[in-house]
TrEMBL record:
This is Adenosylcobinamide kinase. Keywords: ATP-binding, Cobalamin biosynthesis, GTP-binding, Kinase, Nucleotide-binding, Transferase. Catalyzes ATP-dependent phosphorylation of adenosylcobinamide and addition of GMP to adenosylcobinamide phosphate. Pfam families: CobU. Gene3D superfamilies: P-loop containing nucleotide triphosphate hydrolases. The active site is at H50 (gmp-histidine intermediate).
Amino acid sequence: MKRIILITGGSRSGKSTYAEKLALSLSSTPVYLATARIWDEEFRKRVIHHQARRGPEWTNIEEEKELSRHALSGRTILIDCITLWCTNFFFDLKADTDQALTAAKEEFDRFTSQDATFIFVTNEIGMGGTSENEIQRKFTDMQGWMNQYIASQADEVILMVSGIPVKIKEDKRLKIRD
């Protein structure tokens, strides 16, 4: 049975740690699908830190954009993160917000057509002020619209606040009936 879970929040809110624990609670052999493009040494160190947290039970896949290239039916997949994934579309498509959003939505739909449990991690980058930088404003728009799209498809949405998960949208299939 396909299930989509979206975990969102600000930087350093505990999204990835929570998502990893959730994935391990759902599967003894989850998949970690990393979407990061390494652009400098500081970011490389962040990636190494994330990798060090994970043990041998994880199947690790690096994929910058084409998530649907990976046949993962029946698996629990943690995709970390949508923000970096959207960044790859946005810059590859020369900051064309509409084209990047369309391409990301189409790839999301292809990928989630598989019968699997998907745990997506994303950032709420639009919760701060409006940037003076036009490219940043355009990316914030694109990212916000993509987050809304995924949330609309998700069975469950969790907002991380200071390391605390707050359920925003609950999976009705998991409710116990009287």
